[in-house]
Amino acid sequence: MVSREETQRKLDLLAAGAMRHTPEQRYTVADRLEERAAESPEARFLIWDEGEISYREANRQANRYAHFALTRGLRRGDVAALMLDNCPDFIYCWMGLAKIGCIAALINTHIKGNALRHALSTTNSKILFVSERCLENLATIDGRDECPVALTIPLSQLDDMADGNPDRTLRQGMTGESTLSLVFTSGTTGLPKAAIVTHMRWLGTGDGWCSLFALDERDVFYCVLPLYHVAAGMSLLSQVLASGGAMVLRPRFSARRFWPDVRQYGVTVTQYSGEMCRYLFNQPARKEDREHSLKLMSGAGLAAELWPRFQQRFGVETIAEGYGGTEINCNLINVDNKVGSCGRIPFKERSNARLVKYDLGGNDYPRNPDGTLIECAAGEVGELLGNIVQIPGVGAGRFSGYTDLEATQQKILHDVFQTGDRWFRTGDLLRRDEDDYYYFVDRIGDTFRWKSENVSTSEVANALGGYAGLELLTVYGVNIPGHEGRAGMAALVMQSGRQFDPDSFYQLATTALPGYAVPVFLRISEQADITSTFKLRKVDLQKAAYKKINDSDLLYVLDTDRETYSPMDNATLARLGIPPGE
Prior knowledge:
Layout: H1 4-18, H2 29-39, E1 44-48, E2 51-54, H3 55-71, E3 79-83, H4 88-99, E4 103-106, H5 113-122, E5 127-130, H6 135-138, E6 149-152, H7 155-158, E7 179-185, E8 193-198, H8 199-213, E9 220-223, H9 230-243, E10 246-249, H10 255-265, E11 269-273, H11 276-281, E12 296-300, H12 307-314, E13 318-323, E14 332-333, E15 343-344, E16 353-357, E17 381-387, H13 405-410, E18 412-414, E19 422-432, E20 437-443, E21 448-450, E22 453-455, H14 457-464, E23 470-478, E24 487-494, H15 502-512, E25 521-525, H16 538-544, E26 554-559, E27 564-567, H17 570-575
Parallel strand pairs: 1-10, 3-4, 3-5, 4-7, 5-6, 9-10, 9-11, 11-12, 12-13, 24-25
Antiparallel strand pairs: 1-2, 7-8, 13-14, 15-20, 16-17, 17-19, 18-19, 19-20, 21-22, 23-24, 25-26, 26-27
Helix pairs in contact: 1-8, 2-3, 2-4, 3-4, 8-9
């Protein structure tokens, strides 16, 4: 067991790096890139399409974008949207906008229609830089004339632009608390919200990680997650610029290509998200599995049952599972390789995070007689809150909010432990153990009630994740006519060449889970419809419930009489009290 003092020592290193940056500072992300280009002009910055791009060349290209943006009328404080696939121009354009004090709205390249229109309008974007591949997304918007001018990457025009650093007065007045970018977060309901990312937070993330893990110019980072996502666009990219190292940039994640890339380029640091590690683990074992330079993997979503098997097979020294989000002000990080945990708070007085009781049935907080909220004891599940701190010269604990003021206010709780205090609602359920390690349980919107019990979709998925031959799994609740609450349903995708066996799955589910948490329905699909962060699209699956989405799907129903999962038909549904045709 790692001592509390040792855990705190590591967390202090992280905090020391992040706290170098303050709300009042005049140093921005643009200054960081220009600084690197001046100090180490020929050092590798990007490795892309088998070629290398130096810090000096990247800075020159960013300058061309900055001067181009000026010719299009953009000025300090204006917003330009980026809807680009992973490529160097994404970074050049983003950094170029920062050089003239503009804000980049980072748009998911997969959204269309009303969601895309909402993303562009809610950010008040004046121009949209868009890749050729994403142009078809724009055609799905009604009232296209009301959207910003769309520009594909203007390579021919960029060649005519100056490549010198723009005058710093163009970003005069920018501080650490100024907005660098807008990053979309879906939350639990409604259309995506544009969360504000400040220069201070972006820079502090990179400096904090470099301080904690002793990262420097010798490190090589591997980026396979989309740059519009905060994990790659803030966490990883800021680490690269903080360390002065190089980044191997790929258009997308490939399980087949991952380890060969790590070996070829000497990668030392990378990220994971969702089921990426399972994809890697499901690749055929090779004798060279442990022959690589990768020392650190950080991310979120590594299942506890897979974690030790993954680490044993591939020999990655440090797995840094964390908890956080674009706008969350109380992030956690597991610095002790504690399997399953997303972080530790060894001394409560050193953290702004608190775990409080939450009543899922009433969607409310139980309170003490004096009206204050009740903190959870060890082993209890509750919602994580972050105290909103506004101390001059201190960046920690701040909540920058969203572009939507109403959405911002909805995330703030008042008078939680004392009159006048303000706390950020994460909307996430966690629990802690006796040693104050924290474990992610579920989103409040994902946990559901069944048979008068709370069912955590994440805990069910963890319990079933070791099923032989499984490629992907997600768990959710669905409504059944005439029944209270929601019944559990699991969607599975099997590995190529592996068959689903309903008997063995029944045995696993009923052995590993309490009766109320055993999934009532199963959907077996041939292919996975996953998000850019490698999670099955739960919302679409919930809408379909236990109806077929396509002819290849196989649907099963829990059959306790036969101790198996039986193919779904009118007879099996009737045992659940569901009329035919429902």
